[in-house]
Amino acid sequence: MTSSSLLTIATACGYAAALFLIPRILLQRRESAATLSWIFALLALPWVGLAAYWLFGQQRLKRYVRRKRIADKVIAETLSTTRDRRVRLTDELVERIDRDLVRVVSRVAGAPPVPGNSVRVFPDPDGAAGAMLEAIDRATESIHFEVYIFKNDEAGTTFRDRLAAAARRGVQVRLLVDSVGSFLTRYSFLQPIVDAGGEVATFLSVGKLRGAFAVNLRNHRKVTVVDGRIAFTGGLNVGNEYGGLRRRVVGPWRDTHMEVRGPSVARLQDVFAEDWHFATGKEVDEKASFPALEVAGSEFVHVLPSGPDSDWEAIHRAIFAAITRATEHVFVTTPYFVPDRAMLVALEVAALRGVDVRLLVPFRSDAPVVLAAGRFHYADLLRAGVRIFEYQGGMLHAKTVEVDKRWATIGSANLDLRSFRLNFELNLVAYGKDVATELHQTFLRDVDRSSEVSLPAVHQWSTSKRFAHATARLLEGIL
């Protein structure tokens, strides 16, 4: 058979596969432009289009969500013993927050906000890492640790050794890392945890069939639950730079993490239990993982998981609703700013209404293409009245939104399409002045270390710079 015949057969097979895939693409929930782009790519270069779709085209992932709702039982039992306090806290919530906003977030979260929690915010990543290690050292029953990146460096070694030491004490230790985020960390590095009696698993391993078709769908969550009673979540991965220990080209990293105590810890535990079961097929021990809890504070919180296993895009809708309901100010901090049209319009319209809208992003980034794509949108935002600040103190990695000193969210989700649609993410929403005020003050301190971007300065950008931004913007769907 001649080479031309082989080429003809290969081309025919490529077109056959492309035609088979097109109906699936048409039925997916994409913007029309994205749908047409995929179809044209498949028809113009079928094998290239098929490879690209295999890597970047998957947007949804079906998984059987068990949701035994053990968390609901724990929360109900906790609050039933403090009924009078719960009524008082509920009255306070109604007074200090927009009922419609609570209703929206409750619908997308699948549950109402939970009262009786304490939330300790760590604007200093070293402080967060220290508190997590201290909790690990004091664990007596279980440690559930879920993270996107677990690096083979000084910080990774410290966490690994502390987890292994806990396992040797008889604590049930389970570590879940994302197979792409932690791709460079060999399993042998984490073997001491297993040797000590703990368990280590990877989420959607690209080396296995199921993971191979979901390379673009990653678990970006950061959750640590100790003894079922204390939890940590936010933006912190495990690695030297996340604690500011290693000064890279972009400088020390600035991140935000938090510690949670109270009935909402059961919801964070539930998120881990679901992810662990999906990754391993194993159940967590209910008795050790879901102990009876007590009211720990006065914070109302929503634990808000989001991911490609749901059509809700819960975190996106919650932030969108908060911005559109703002009356005084919206302060957004994000390391990766690649918004969709809805989020851009929400920010612009809020500013046009007279709301003080401020966006804080890095001046230098570990992902320069993402930074360039975000800068493409500066001119429209600035014309609407949004103030934009670029952080000069290093690599800004915090992911927070604070509205009117009464609504705040901290978590793993960036203000980008990947976080809203492709990744498994987890944010915590806090209602009331305490957490929001702390984030408000942190934002202003960060602004003091930032440079404000003006519209005249954007207009003076060179043609080559604007061209780079426009080119990067074309990649928004996969950044």
Structure description:
The protein is of the alpha/beta class and 479 residues long. It folds into 3 domains: 3-57, no CATH class; 70-99 and 110-303, Endonuclease, Chain A (2-Layer Sandwich); 314-473, 2-Layer Sandwich (Endonuclease, Chain A), CATH 3.30.870.10. It has 20 helices and 19 strands. The protein has helices at residues 3-27, 32-44, 46-57, 70-80, 83-96, 99-109, 125-138, 154-168, 187-195, 209-212, 265-280, 286-289, 314-325, 341-352, 368-375, 378-384, 417-422, 433-448, 455-459, 463-473; strands spanning 114-122, 142-147, 172-178, 199-203, 223-226, 230-234, 253-254, 257-261, 299-306, 329-333, 337-338, 356-362, 387-391, 395-396, 400-403, 407-411, 415-416, 425-431, 450-453. Strands 4-3-2-5-6-8-1-9-18-16-15-10-12-13-19 form a 15-stranded mixed β-sheet, sandwiched between helices. The longest helix has 25 residues, at 3-27. The protein is globular, with a radius of gyration of 23 Å. The chain starts with a helix and ends in a 6-residue tail after the last helix. The mean pLDDT is 85.
